[in-house]
Design goal:
Number of helices of chain A: 5
Main location (chain A): membrane
Largest sheet of chain A: 22 strands, antiparallel, barrel
Helix content of chain A: under 10%
Subcellular location (chain A): Cell outer membrane
CATH class of the largest domain in chain B: Mainly Beta
Low-confidence stretches of chain A: 1-18, 100-110
CATH topology of one domain in chain A: Ferric Hydroxamate Uptake Protein, Chain A, domain 1
Number of helices of chain B: 2
Oligomer: heterodimer
Strand content of chain A: over 45%
Distance between the termini of chain A: 59 Å
Pfam family, one (chain B): DUF4249
Organism (chain B): Fibrisoma montanum
Number of strands of chain A: 47
Number of strands of chain B: 21
Protein name (chain B): DUF4249 domain-containing protein
Strand order of the largest sheet of chain B: 6-5-10-11-19
Order of helices and strands of chain B: HEEEEEEEEEEEEEEEEEEHEEE
Strand content of chain B: over 45%
Distance between the termini of chain B: 52 Å
Helix content of chain B: 10-25%
């Protein structure tokens, strides 16, 4: 069967070889030189023929020999017509000028409605800078990942956090990549902000199903973040000043062949807390306020070797640092990611062959150093990857594109490193695991325009993994098809298998930096997912896009932890895992208005998610925390005046499934241990996993962006109101003992809800010169 | 000066924000069916001490729902001993039990002990435990800092032949008092080696350190650790799941043996 599939792919490809020639090049903004992704190139003599530029604005067009006229267009730019005399393969670069009434910032839009109808790709969402910059955000910090949470099938894992659950998958089932490099913990401030600085990011693509064969490693989604292409026309300095953080970025050319972009961001609450601590320094019994900050630093350098070859180096590093400057208990907790990659793009002379070779280094680690009493605690975990990737695409004919390649990863894990030292060596403890693993994959896929109505994408990935004596390999077939009933209506279907060889040890209900990545071993088998999806897509008058998509996902060998698992300082953590299965299914309806002064979307998801573990709740199936029956998001952006944009988002979803004690009893634990407060003897009884449904969550956020008209550059001021009607959505429900007027426990309890975000206004000033 | 004022304003604003973030809510809990809760300890030379009560819905009216009139049978080596519904108050510790047997327990390390409880409603609990040999404390050493405060360093040897679980408690001056140290530990770090465990600097010259090293069965240790986790899960969003591992079938609680070594030392 597998041989048959490969045979069909290759025969199908070569059978189409005809005397066509290729024209390739790049479509870019005339002012900045930044490539325009998704620009349309239409061959006027051949109805239906044409292409779209890729994420860098590059294109390859296969044309018959002779004179051809092409039209190049892009939203907000003046279209160009070019007459080409096709008698040899050639490279052309096209620069489009912005239309007069457009703001000068180069904005990157996602795919056009027509692309979305005609593509075979199901279940993909692309969020661009422009959309993210227009929407209201918490504390004024623009966050592309939080915009993704407004799309159907994507759920926030907690109030205000940038963690996502995609179609019933857990947080560790999402592969976050920055320019192809894995980012293992893509959040700051315990999940409240993502690591992706808007000044350094061009767009983010989220794949929920129908995964291209080049992607693997996680069961539920791929979040592909692309860095911003540097400007090649002139220097620009930009940034923003917000309530909790400020940003600065510089971009521009160095000579004709090199261009760069550098962006940084840092919070500054620690400046104020330091001032308070200094002021209270002389007071007896003063409790110092912890010092906390995070920063990001992104850089990208592009070097154009020639028209057919270019290099770029992309680098990111960011860390969070929390410091408790107490004399009694001094503690420093810092964690962060590093992602560095070098990319080499080459195009053959006839532009039929494109190669992308890249090397990547990814690292995530956390370290907690504390001094208490006579002890120094040094606790940490981490993971480092060295990766080589090759991706080749080949266009044997106008209706075929074959893509193949592979990747090889060497990973070093550092798990639960615990070092406790004191003046007494006999009290010292030093423990931890440091496994090394190999992971790799080979893939091949083909896009085949069988007819104007029918298009097929089929591929196969073969992945493998080895750690000491444990080795696994698995085929990962992918197939998707599109049938176009008309140019504006299509039906798509896809199937994809994904395999996950590394697992996240989540120690709590919240995503924490102390969560540990753990490799597959002889005991811990890889996790598998199989997902079927089908979508009906309708481009309504080029103004609206309506999509209705259904999916069914089956998960096998997913991991959790046994009751009473010891996750901290355990040299044999693999003994604490339990294994189970899961399923998720649902229907996502999405209506987007893609043009005009009013833009936005309405999304609704009806979904179910289940998990079953033999060792949890006696094998009864249960809802994981992120199961939500109904999920609604309404997003609106209205350009009231050329320089004034209003926006609003409203979300509603069924409350999380959480474990809540329904009963209580008293246990003394030991006849000889004295307990001061009888309330401390109360043991809560949790009847089953995630037995309680939190109240529904809903929230309205409002935004207001006003662009000034300075003499030079662009500046704007952004006002946001988070939770405009002050809905106190419970983040946690806890029981508290009631006390009488003398402060003694009455023996009764009351339920109390903790809310994170009441109504929160914020303001940010952005500039670009 | 200006900066100081700004920081004060921010602090006040943050305080107001946090105050606005808590509220009492009505939680619609499903109807709760009370369960039997058993807590029973066997100890060499001590009477059987057993508490039998019921659990309650979390928001129910307070009461100590003792369950009296149940038939409680302790079985060991084919002999059944009925534990009468006679309250027992331990004068040394102030703790009370609603079932007790006047016959002191004689330790048998080779055979298990089984408890069967049947209440007037016909509800039935069973639980089994066994004695394990105590582990001796090798030494308790006071270690001073420059302020004249001392911590107690307790040393004992771990048996490499088996997985071991311990609870080490230290009190100051009075044996049953507020704990200076309450450590639940297993031998993961130091299997078969000498284990050294210290308290905080809570002692001074002239104090007496009372150390008790409990050698726990796995069942008892898991009950203690998971009950501790359940208490944390009730108030901490970052805590792990709150299921309690119990060796009582048909209900809640624990049936455990107490084997320990006790030593005290006066700090000079």
């Amino acid at each position: 069967m597998k041989k048959c599939l490969l045979f069909c792919l290759l025969v199908g490809s070569t059978a189409q070889a005809q005397p066509y020639l290729t024209v390739s090049g790049q479509v870019s903004d005339a002012a900045s030189g930044v490539g325009l992704p998704g620009a349309a190139i239409t061959v006027l003599e051949r109805a239906g023929n044409g292409t779209r530029t890729d994420s860098d604005g590059r294109f390859v067009l296969t044309l018959p020999v002779g004179k051809q006229t092409v039209r190049v267009s892009y939203l907000g730019y003046v279209a160009q017509r070019l007459t080409l005399n096709v008698n040899r393969s050639e490279v052309i670069n096209i620069r489009l000028k912005a239309a007069d009434n457009q703001l000068s910032e180069v904005v990157v839009t996602g795919q056009s409605n027509q692309d979305k109808v005609m593509s075979t790709q199901t279940s993909v969402d692309v969020v661009d800078r422009k959309t993210a910059l227009s929407l209201p955000v918490v504390f004024g910090e623009v966050d592309l990942i939080k915009v993704l949470q407004l799309k159907p099938g994507v759920k926030s894992t907690g109030e205000g956090t940038s963690g996502i659950s995609v179609r019933g998958g857990s947080t560790d089932q999402n592969l976050f990549q920055y320019d192809g490099t894995t980012v293992y913990n893509p959040s700051h401030m315990f999940g409240f902000f993502s690591t992706f600085n808007i000044d350094a990011v061009k767009n983010v693509s989220l794949y929920k199903a129908g995964f291209p064969a080049e992607y693997s490693g996680r069961l539920s989604s791929v979040v592909d973040v692309t860095s911003l292409t540097p400007r090649d026309s002139s220097f620009h300095i930009g940034g923003g000043i917000g309530l909790i953080a400020s940003r600065l970025n510089v971009t521009g050319p160095i000579g004709n062949k090199i261009k760069f972009n550098v962006a940084g961001r840092r919070t500054y609450a620690d400046v104020f807390t330091e001032a308070i601590n200094r002021r209270n320094g002389d007071r007896p019994n003063a409790n110092p306020i912890p010092r906390y900050y995070f920063y990001d630093l992104n850089g990208r350098i592009d070097y154009t070797i020639n028209d057919r070859s270019r290099l770029f180096l992309s680098a990111y590093t960011g860390r969070d640092r929390f410091h408790l400057p107490s004399d009694v208990f001094r503690s420093t907790f810092d964690w962060g990611n590093t992602a560095v990659s070098l990319h080499w793009h080459q195009t053959s002379k006839d532009a039929r062959w494109n190669s992308h070779t890249s090397g990547h280094y990814a690292r995530y680690d956390y370290r907690l150093v504390s001094t208490f009493d006579r002890f120094t605690f040094n606790i940490g975990s981490g993971i480092a990857d060295f990766v080589l990737k090759e991706r080749v695409s080949w266009q044997p004919g106008p209706r075929h594109t074959v893509t193949f390649g592979g990747e090889l990863t060497r990973s070093r894990f550092s798990i639960s490193r615990v070092n406790i030292s004191s003046a007494k060596p006999e009290e010292n403890i030093d423990t931890g695991e440091k496994p090394r693993v190999w992971e790799g994959g080979l893939f091949i896929s083909e896009d085949w325009d069988i007819s104007p109505k029918l298009k097929l994408s089929a591929g196969l990935r073969w992945s493998g993994f080895r750690q000491d004596s444990a080795g696994y390999n698995a085929p990962e077939p992918r197939i998707s098809a599109r049938y176009a009933f008309s140019p504006s209506v299509s039906l798509k279907a896809s199937y994809a298998r994904m395999v996950q060889y590394r697992h996240l040890v989540v120690s709590s209900g919240a995503a924490l930096p102390t969560d540990i990545w753990y490799p597959s071993t002889a005991k811990i088998k890889p996790e598998y997912s199989d997902q079927l999806a089908a979508a009906l897509t309708w481009n309504i008058g080029n103004q609206f896009l309506l999509t209705n998509e259904v999916y069914y996902k089956r998960l096998r060998q997913v991991v959790d932890f046994k009751t009473g698992a010891q996750l901290f300082a355990n040299d044999r953590l693999e003994n604490e895992f339990v294994f189970g299965n899961g399923s998720a299914y649902g229907n996502e309806i999405y209506l987007e208005k893609t043009s005009g002064r009013l833009r936005g979307w309405v999304g609704y998801t009806l979904a179910w998610t289940w998990r079953t573990f033999e060792d949890i709740d006696g094998g009864r199936r249960f809802f994981p925390r992120y199961d939500r029956r109904h999920d609604i998001s309404v997003v609106a952006m209205y350009q009231l005046r050329p320089r004034l944009t209003l926006s609003a988002t409203w979300v509603y979803n069924t409350g999380n499934a959480v474990s809540l004690a329904t009963g209580r009893y008293v246990a003394m634990d030991n006849p000889y241990v004295r307990v001061e407060n009888p309330v401390d003897q109360v043991v809560p009884e949790f009847p089953s996993r995630n037995n309680y449904r939190m109240p529904p969550y809903h929230r309205l956020d409002l935004g207001f962006v006003y662009k000034f008209r300075p003499k030079r550059g662009d500046t704007d001021i952004t006002f946001n109101v988070t939770n405009a009607y002050n809905r106190l959505n419970p983040y946690l429900i806890t029981y508290q003992a009631e006390e009488n007027s003398e402060g003694e426990p009455t023996g009764r309890f009351r339920a109390r809800a903790i809310t994170l975000f009441p109504l929160l206004p914020s303001v940010t000033y952005n500039f670009r010169f | 000066m200006k900066l100081t004022k700004v920081t004060y304003v921010l602090t006040v604003l943050a305080g107001l924000g946090l105050a606005a973030c808590q509220q009492d809510i009505d939680v619609d809990l499903p109807p709760y069916e009370p369960k039997l809760v058993l807590e029973c300890y066997l100890e060499e030379g001590q009477p059987v001490r057993l508490t039998l009560l019921e659990s309650r819905g979390y928001l129910d009216v307070a009461s100590l729902p003792l369950v009296d009139g149940a038939t409680v049978v302790l079985s060991h080596q084919g002999l059944n001993d009925t534990i009468p519904n006679v309250p027992f108050v331990d004068r040394a510790t102030g703790k009370s039990y609603n079932y007790s047997s006047p016959t002191p327990i004689k330790t048998d390390y080779d055979s298990p002990y089984t408890l069967t409880v049947t209440d007037k409603q016909g509800r039935r609990l069973t639980a089994t435990t066994r004695f394990i040999r105590p582990v001796a404390i090798k030494s308790i050493t006071p270690e001073f800092n420059q302020n004249g405060e001392a911590y107690g360093l307790t040393k004992f040897d771990d048996n490499p032949q088996q997985k071991n679980y311990y609870r080490l408690t230290l009190t100051r001056n009075i044996r049953v008092d507020t704990l200076s140290l309450d450590a639940l530990l297993d031998d993961a770090f130091s299997n078969g080696e000498e284990i050294n465990w210290g308290s905080g600097y809570t002692f001074k010259k002239g104090d007496t350190i009372h150390a008790t090293l409990y050698h726990c069965t796995e069942d008892y240790y898991k009950f203690l650790t998971t009950a501790q986790s359940a208490r944390q899960a009730n108030v901490n969003p970052f805590a792990a799941s709150g299921e309690v591992i119990s060796n009582v079938r048909g209900g809640l609680g624990v049936f455990a043996t107490l084997t320990y070594d006790y030593r005290s030392v006066v700090i000079k």
